[in-house]
Amino acid sequence: MFKHTFAAFAILLGFVHNSTHAAPATIGSCYDTVKLGDITPPALSRDLYVLVDQTMALDAKLQEESYQKIIQFLMPGDSVQVIGFSANAAGYYTEIILRGVIDARLPEDTRYAISKKILRQVDTCQKNQDSQVRTYTGKALLHAFSNATTDLPKTEILSNLSSVSKNIISQSDTPEKYMLIISDMMENSDLLSLYGGGKLENLNPARELEKLETKVTFEDMDQTQVYVVGGGFLNDGKYRSSVALKSLEDFWSLYFERSNADLRQFGTPSLLGQIGQ
Known about the structure:
The protein is α/β, with parallel strands linked by helices.
C-alpha cells in the first residue's frame, strides 16, 4: 500500500531544514480527539525507538533502507519516536524529532456499541493518522540525516543510549519495545574508543565491558529488541575485515545483554532481515 521511496519523500515534502534544533513533531492518538464516552480505547502494544547517529554521513542507499525498514514495521498499535544524537558538542545534542502513534483499532464488538457518527470520525482520523506518521517519519529521518556531520571529534553512542533508556524507555509501559540504531557503532568517547589501526581486530569485548562497568551505570532497557543499520560503515571506500566487524558486533551484543536488551540483528552495514522478525 505504501510504495513511496525515501527519495520521493525528499521531493514530495520539499524538506530542507538547516537548523540544528526544531520542536518535535507530535502525532497523537485519535482517541484523545474523538471521545468514546465510557468506552476504554485499546492500548498501544509496541514502541519503536529510531536513533540516528549524526556524527556519520550515511549513503543514500542506507538512508532509503532505514526508512523502508521502519515503514514495513509500523502497524496499528505502534508508537514511534525518531531521535537524533551526536557528540554532545556545542549545537549538537540528543534531539527528539518525532513522536507519533498509530492507534490500535477498536474491536468489532466495541464498534457495535458506538454510534455511526463517532465511528466515522474515528475511522477518518485514524486513516489520516496512519498516513501522517509514515510521512513525518520520512521528514524526521531527512532532518536527522541533513544535520549529520563528520567534523565532530567524538561519537557518544553509549551516553546517548543511557539517556534514552533512562528518560524515554523507562517511562513507557508498552509491552513490546524495539530499537533501530542507524550508526556505524564506532564509539569514540572518554568512556571507550574503538578507533585506531587494528584496534577492532584485537578487541576483547568482555574485557572492554568490564572496564565500562567501572565507569557507568547500565540503564535497564526493559527487554528492548535492538536492530542496527550501518555497523562498521565506512563511506571512503575503505574495508573493514570480517574479524573487526565480528568484534564490533560481539561488544555491542554483550553491552545490550548487560542492559537487559537483545541485539537481534547487526547490519554491517545493511540490515538483511526485518525489524521484529
